[in-house]
């Protein structure tokens, strides 16, 4: 069992990021691969990413320097944000949905290639490609939302092959933002506490989660978030695993905790929460529960629940 986005490629080659000659040479190499992304959606083919070469006309829509991701299997890897392209008959309502099932096809794309939601493809494409696409998605979102200097408000410029932004007015440097999030299994004997947020797909339940606040340890954040959302006090908090989650820029710290009681008092963040026995969780896991669907396959929540079901935690 695995979850998405945690696989590492051969080398990030961070030393290349400020080496203009090395980057130019890499882009001139016919073996180099470039991943186009459109508004966070990677270019997809048949159960794999759809790569471009430097001369691909689809890359003409890139309005900022390419992002350098590093090297894998002897090839240099870049990503390009082509969000300035405007498809015909764009379904804007679909783009705003929790799960965007729409696809966009560029007129110059190879047959069968399309821009699609990464959450839907994350377990269908190779693990290393999912990690590359997730990294590019998170970085491009950071560039989109941090275009101005926090020190003097001037417009910043992308540098270091997409891994920094610099202010030409005050010389301040800005680095990619990653938000720490705790996501936790809360247990009580043979039961597991699952919740659902407003706007989630019908019947979908998952582990509780929340952002780590300044000055908090992971354990403190777990206890606070569970108490705030459900009124449950927890102890015996343990770390399980972590997952980069580029929706938009999070790092999920998976934990497990024991509840001191089972009486629930929900706050406004949750639409519902419920205790499920191991048998009920297994029914949900296999799609046989009448009221609960499991967390999405590929998410750390799905992984942790599977570990709990198997008796490994």
From TrEMBL:
It comes from the Bacteria. One of its GO terms (molecular function) is metal ion binding. The keyword Mitochondrion does not apply. It is an enzyme of class 3 (hydrolase). Its cofactor is Mg(2+); Zn(2+). Its EC number is 3.6.1.22. It holds the Pfam family NUDIX. GO terms for biological process: NAD+ catabolic process; NADP+ catabolic process. GO terms for cellular component: cytosol. Belongs to the Nudix hydrolase family. NudC subfamily. This is NAD(+) diphosphatase. It comes from Roseinatronobacter bogoriensis subsp. barguzinensis.
